[in-house]
Amino acid sequence: MSTPLCALGARDLQVSVPGRILVNDLDVELRPGEFVAILGRNGAGKTLTLHTLAGLREAARGRLELAGADLETLSRREIARTLALLPQYSEDLFPSTVFDTVLIGRHPHIEPLRLESAEDREIAARCLREMHLEGLAERDVATLSGGERRRLAIAQTLAQTPQVYLLDEPLNHLDPQHQLDVLELFSSRVREGATVVATLHDVNLAARYADRCLLLFGDGRWCVGNTAEALSVETLTELFDVEMEAVRWRDTRLFVACGAAARDAGCASDAPSASADKPA
Questions:
Q1: Residues forming beta bridges with residue 246, ordered by sequence position
Q2: At 182, is the secondary structure helix, strand, or coil?
Q3: Mean pLDDT within 222-236
Q4: 134-185 residue pLDDT tens
Q5: Which of 50, 96, 149, 225 gives 144 a disulfide partner, CB atoms 3.0 to 4.6 angstroms apart?
Q6: Cα–Cα distance, 138 to 98 (Å, whole number)
Q7: 59-90 pLDDT, tens per residue?
Q8: Which alpha helices (DSSP H) does the chain contain, by range?
């Protein structure tokens, strides 16, 4: 079977909250084998957009396609076998070990009233190793640090073995080394053909790892493009409403927030308007 050209597509998608349109007429195709970073200010709609793309929140308008099928025609089990969402926060409602928690990621692949197979358990063990948690397999989840719990949530998402990963702030609570480990791991999944879409707050990590960036301005406007073209001083100044500068470091650019709000520094008026007309 040939690989679909579009792993996850949004057509004229509108994401809104009462009295406010956050993302208007989003039209984008997320492809196999690419890493897409979503950037925007707090409250711009990054999390709501991810939940809408996952089919967990009804869009105000528009439709979604997953691997060529209308998302509304698929059951939640069918969706979960292809698409995984890593939420921003994880709750542990019941006592559980680390290993049993990561096994939850296998549930979409296990038929009702059946137990986990040896293959399911091996996948779970491998994902714990990838997150360097194998030594904690029998620990109670409640005893983990915030960073360990975040890595466990990522291991659970990996255990789902989807083709599309939607990651909401995957680097929460992680130290710099683990941040790089996580991004390298998902980059390896991209090289294997998966689609990774992640909300990030670190512009420089987005510049380093993302193939494309989707910028959400919080007032309905959005733009998407290749990372090198999408991330500019002018656009980022408008996106985050803070004066940005680009500095040279080794053979690349680093973006630095200067500290003054763009509306006070007079930068926003010089920035080009972002448009929803850019091609996906």
A1: 255
A2: helix
A3: 96
A4: 999 999 999 999 999 999 999 999 999 999 999 999 999 999 999 999 999 9
A5: 149
A6: 6
A7: 999 999 999 999 999 999 999 999 999 999 88
A8: 46-53, 76-82, 98-103, 118-130, 146-159, 176-191, 203-209, 227-230, 233-240, 262-265
For the chain, the C-alpha Rg in angstroms (whole number) is 19
* 68 vs 196: CA distance, rounded Å: 17
**CA triplet 186, 187, 191: central angle to 5 degrees?**
115
Token pair, residue 83, equals 């698409």
- Looking from the CA of 221 toward its CB, the CA atoms found within 13 Å total 11
Q: What whole-number distance in Å separates Cα of residue 57 and Cα of residue 274? A: 26
Helices (H), ranges, 166-261: 176-191, 203-209, 227-230, 233-240
- CA 225, 230, 235, 241: dihedral to nearest 10 degrees? 90
Q: Nearest to residue 76, comparing CAs of 108, 44, 106?
A: 108
DSSP string, 157-172: HHHT--SEEEEESTTT
Q: CB under 8 Å, gap of 24 or more: what pairs does 15-21 form?
A: 15/45, 15/48, 15/49, 15/52, 15/59, 15/60, 16/60, 17/48, 21/60, 21/219, 21/220
**DSSP class of residue 277?**
T
Q: In whole angstroms, give the CA distance from residue 99 to residue 133.
A: 9
Handedness of CA 57, 34, 208, 189 (dihedral sign): positive
Residue 44 one-letter amino acid? A
User: Cβ distance 37 to 54 under 8 Å?
Assistant: no
